[in-house]
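Chain A, query sequence.
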Amino acid sequence: MTNIILCGCNGKMGHAVQNLVHQREECSIVAGVDITPQEASPFPVYASLEAVQEQAQVVVDFSNPSALSSILEYCRSHPGTAAVLCTTGYSAEQTQEIQKAAKELPLFYSRNMSLGVNLLIELAKKAESVLGDGFDVEIVEMHHNQKIDAPSGTALMIADAINQVRENSMQYVYDRHSQRKKREKKEIGLHSVRGGSIVGEHQVIFAGQSEVLTLSHSAQSKELFAVGAVNAALFMNCKGPGLYDMSHLI
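Chain A, predicted structure.
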């Protein structure tokens, strides 16, 4: 049995994770952490991770980037406890903090917990290696009107993967309206759309001479991210220090 502490338990993703865990026999949520109170909960809910009394093998986080330091400190003070970091919007400094902490802690970090998205990334890498600099790359992501960060963490994952194929020689361009010049070959354009209740849409466009190849992924429900997070939690039970991601889980 894998016991889980769920950070951000009262949010939309927190509820999705709860509903999924309720259907699984190999894991259980023993405590939650959330600054937003809720009248009824099947497990104790605390305002901070430090106040949690229950023991768990894994902390699953769907809260806020500001909670990162407290989660890492909790894992340090509870040896053997792993963390599955599902929150998006980490700064470059926080990403470095995760990489550094993974030398002593078992951490699972992915900016998107969907199996399909991670397959899309692999396909985009393959397309880039085949098509090369004869094709321009543009990434379009669409999300609901409540999403704060832009571009999405997934769009950046895709861009980083393509950039690795190009030996990190590409430049990211987020905004073209202020530029009055032709597109350069070493650009990856990233474009964000926010509106309505769009769960998540990502398109990778490879535009060449007289032909265009488009790879796309459409998330129909937040449940798919919950599935990835719970599977990651099960995977991380008893894992040693290191930085894990969806490629390890797959």
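The helical segments are 12-22, 68-77, 92-101, 115-131, 153-165, 223-236, 246-249. The first strand starts at residue 2 and ends at 7.
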